[in-house]
């Protein structure tokens, strides 16, 4: 990620923006990407299968957030990394996000 930022890779590197504006835009775009990722995990069959694990728990307790399939952890991480690279998000925005 640092190398991509140093090489001016990504959409936000194509336009001159103040750092504050770039951070706000990057955070908003990351939140939007996360929202669409969440929708995909609920509406695409092969993504729903690993996602339904934490929806299958009938009780609601403090551990419900820990019921994840490994695929459900790996795919979103790859997706977020791709979005960060394509955006050329400032590192500060990624840390805040």
What does this structure look like?
This protein is an all-alpha fold and 97 residues long. The protein has one domain (2-96). Helices cover 63% and strands 0% of the residues. It has helices spanning 2-6, 19-43, 45-51, 70-87, 91-96. Helix 2 runs antiparallel to helix 4 (70-87). The longest helix is centred in the first third of the chain and has 25 residues, at 19-43. The mean pLDDT is 83.
Blueprint of the fold:
Blueprint: H1 2-6, H2 19-43, H3 45-51, H4 70-87, H5 91-96
Helix pairs in contact: 2-3, 2-4
Main attributes of the structure:
single chain, 97 residues, mainly alpha
Count the beta strands: 0
Mean pLDDT: 83
Biggest β-sheet description = none
Q: What Rg, in angstroms, do the CA atoms define? A: 16 Å
Return residue spans where pLDDT drops below 50 for at least 5 consecutive residues.
none
What's the structural domain tally?
1
What is the terminal-to-terminal distance? 15 Å
Succession of helices and strands: HHHHH
Q: By helix and strand content, what is the structural category?
A: mainly alpha
Helix content: 55-70%
Strand percentage lies at: under 5%
Q: Which term fits the overall shape? A: elongated
Query: Can you count the helices?
Result: 5
